[in-house]
Amino acid sequence: MNHVTDDLELYSLGALTPADRARAAAHLVECPACREQARPIDEVVQELPETLPSREAPGRLRERVLASARADLVPARARERDTAWIGRLIRPALGLAAALWIAVGAAALVGENARISNELRSVTGELAKYESIAYGIREGGRWWYMEGKEEWTGSGGTLIAPRVEGRPPFVVFHDVKPLTDPKQLYTIWLVSSDNTWVRGATFRPDGSDLQAVDVTAPLAGFDRCAVTVENSAWGRRAGPIVMESRIVPPTP
Amino acid sequence: MPNTSDQSDDVLIVALAGRDLGALATLYDRYGRLAYALAYRILGEGEAAEDVVHDAYISAWRGAASYRRERGNVRGWLMSIVHHRAVDVLRRKTTFRPAPLEAAAERAADDDTAEAAERNVEHQTVRAALEGLPQAQRRTIELAYFGGYTHVELAELMGVPLGTVKGRMRIGLQKLRRALELQGNHREQSR
Do B122 and A64 touch (CB under 8 A)? Predict the structure, then answer.
């Protein structure tokens, strides 16, 4: 076995030629002794980025990374159907204004119209600014109402898929039951036909009558939306379903 | 987005292997800026740096299960992915080679002075340790790591034998390690 101890600094700094690098990498996989010697060198080299002056990454890069990762979660067939949602997130205040606008129509289904209308009046000024967003939702948006179950009866949420370029789906909740345990979180899930659960958002009630929550996964490829109460902001679903709805018609 | 901001890197990497978007978002929030700074330093322009950081994070997203704690921490693992990708991109180009670190630092300081002032003690420690090396050793390490030069190219560029390039890297990294250990010990004692 030809050890690569003489080349470990070159390897770690990325200064080997591609062929030598491949040879060293293959050896390191097989040789614990060389790996042991490489580790302290790697630890020092991995500190080198810290010598750089800070540089703010463009804001769009974060969403681009997350969008690509989300796309990884969605079956390829679904990706072909709908990729237009990927784009810029609008500011939360604008989201709430748009949410309230559409919620008026959605809430009429559950008798919440008067109260929501009051809410709407309070943000009329903002709505005027974002008329184009509201127009886009009116013209093409779809929504599905999720009714609270059992002890969540009386609560509900409307999942809204605005057909406005760059605007992600969001849920407008009403009368969300407070969570008594500070560790608990409401979690919005999108569920595919093969029962894959993808976390779309996590939130705690903010005490307001209406609460808009952006969903960070695309709806394409999923046929159900559910809200659960979880004890963790990550990992698999473990908590009870407190509301849910089918979100796309069944395929004929 | 799930709130995973208080989770340790080791917990996040397990969640990442489980395809948890919240974990990915938190790792981006934690190290995206550093990753971008590294890619930008190597490539010298924003668009290519964005592509490299994007590809690196997606590579981490898809390959999180291959992460091994014994080979280094999560930050180091992410930065090594960014570094390899950026150097690969750089080597496909023939026209750009980055300036020495000092010049890059001056340029960036104008862009983000307030943020630079907030860099924590660890960052300052590493930088001070690197700047404390003899110039030949420091320059060799910088040109290799940030410049993407192979040792053969460096020998030619600097007009020294291959063995000298290797020696400068080895001694420089050893000194850097000792300096970091020493400064780390001083910090511990002063707490």
Answer: no
The fold of B119-191 is Arc Repressor Mutant, subunit A (1.10.10)
* Model pTM above 0.80: no
- ipTM, interface predicted TM-score of the complex: 0.83
Distance from CA of B36 to the nearest CA of A (A): 6
Percentage of residues in chain A with pLDDT exceeding 90?
17
Domain ranges of chain B: 1-98, 119-191
User: Are A130 and A148 in contact, with CB atoms under 8 Å apart?
Assistant: no
For domain B1-98, give its CATH number from 2.60.120.330, 1.10.510.10, 3.40.50.2300, 1.10.1740.10: 1.10.1740.10
Please, which residues have CB within 8 angstroms of residue A184's CB and are 6 or more apart in sequence? Answer: A204, A229, A230, A231, A239
Determine whether the interchain pair B33/A57 forms a contact, defined as Cβ–Cβ distance below 8 Å: yes
Q: What is the pLDDT of residues B54-67, one digit of tens each?
A: 999 999 998 898 88
DSSP 8-state secondary structure symbol assigned to residue A239: S
Cβ-Cβ contacts under 8 Å between A and B: the total is 194
**Contact between B150 and A16 using a beta-carbon 8 Å cutoff:** yes
**Contact (Cβ atoms closer than 8 angstroms) between residue A55 and residue B123:** no
